[in-house]
Amino acid sequence: MSRSNNVAQIAPPREKGAAARLTRKQKAAIIVRFLLNEGADVPLSDLPDGLQADLTTQMGAMRYVDRATLAEVVAEFAGELESLGLTFPRGVSGALAALDGRISPLTAARLRREAGVRQTGDPWDQVRDASLDVLAPIAAAESPEIAAVILSKLDVDRAAALLAKLPGERARRITYAVSQTQSVTPEAVDRIGLSIAGQIADIPDTAFADGPEKRVGEILNSSTAEIRDAVLSGLEETDGDFASRVRRAIFTFADIPRRLEPLDVPKMLRGVEQPTLVAALGAARDEDTGAAAEFLFENMSRRMADALREEIDDAGPVKPREGEAAMTEVVNAIRRLEAAGELRLRTPEDDASDDADDG
């Protein structure tokens, strides 16, 4: 027989109404204590912070409740539960939580913004789930100390990837600021999390995950050199700034020496079939593509380089269309590794940072 049944049966006869002298907070404390004693899982963390604090304070102020009073309070609580037909979540925030996963994310985000309601749950969960493209501008705009807290709350791999997206000097200042976070209080970290999550929530939803320059750049990456040059020339005349951003987003075979780290060459070569590699290297005859081919030869094993050179000589001249298609496949292999996080392409900002360090 459970303890709850025992309470009802062994409570001695006494004057009714003893529970009436208790406040609702005292009754709530009694019910919670009773449920915890029974081994029930009471999700108190779902309550507002104020109610959690009131409940904790009330439980700390109480000492002893006799069995008859306990039975009366439990009976009253059970009666209220039996008479309860249906409850609704309080406010837009509660309604959004109840409908989570059942209405579209776009609708939920719009309602949350219109009502001024922040996303429920731990704000740092929202920060961790945000893309690095969203976090990088925030980390760049905040003070190094705030950015250091953001960095400290991310997983190691995500933190390293975020640092890689920031300019070298900025990344160094944030890394140093991590050493100053030892005395940051949990309350301060929570406030920072709420602020950053609010900034993320304020970013409008967009139809495309990537920026326009990246989308155009990827299209031109797969286009022929003739089309690529013609489009870029037209963009220069129409919008020079956009054309410049597109050029930075473009990655072609000729860009390999400037963008690919030498240590990543063997990894990339494993993702390209031998005939494709032979055709790409054999077609690399002009100044730019020839330099890229030589870069690849220098950073692969000597045995592999000698074997490829022999195959290129035996194959003879490569048709321009076939050679360009092979070079595109080599570039695509690099892009796939980058998307999988197995390598990182260098950017103009990296070159500028290296030049500053050399200076």
Secondary-structure class: mainly alpha
CATH topology of the largest domain: Annexin V, domain 1
Mean pLDDT: 83
- Overall tally of domains: 4
CATH level 1 class label of the largest domain = Mainly Alpha
CATH homologous superfamily title of the largest domain: Flagellar motor switch protein FliG, alpha-alpha superhelical domain
The Rg value, from CA coordinates, equals 32 Å
Low-confidence stretches: 1-15
N-to-C SSE string, H for helix and E for strand: HHHHHHHHHHHHHHHHHHHHHH
What do these coordinates show?
The protein is mostly helical and 359 residues long. The protein folds into 4 domains: 3-83, no CATH class; 89-117, no CATH class; 119-202, Flagellar motor switch protein FliG, alpha-alpha superhelical domain (Annexin V, domain 1, Orthogonal Bundle); 212-350, Flagellar motor switch protein FliG, alpha-alpha superhelical domain (Annexin V, domain 1). The protein is 68% helix and 0% strand. It has 22 helices and no strands. α9 (144-153) crosses α11 (168-178) and α14 packs antiparallel against α15. The chain is elongated and about 105 Å long. The protein starts with a helix and ends with a helix. 16% of the residues are buried. Residues 1-15 have low confidence and may be disordered.
Which key phrases capture this entry?
359 residues; mainly alpha; Annexin V, domain 1; 4 domains; 22 helices; 0% strand; disordered N terminus
Structure summary:
This protein has 359 residues and is mainly α. Helices cover 68% and strands 0% of the residues. Mean pLDDT is 83; it is low at 1-15.
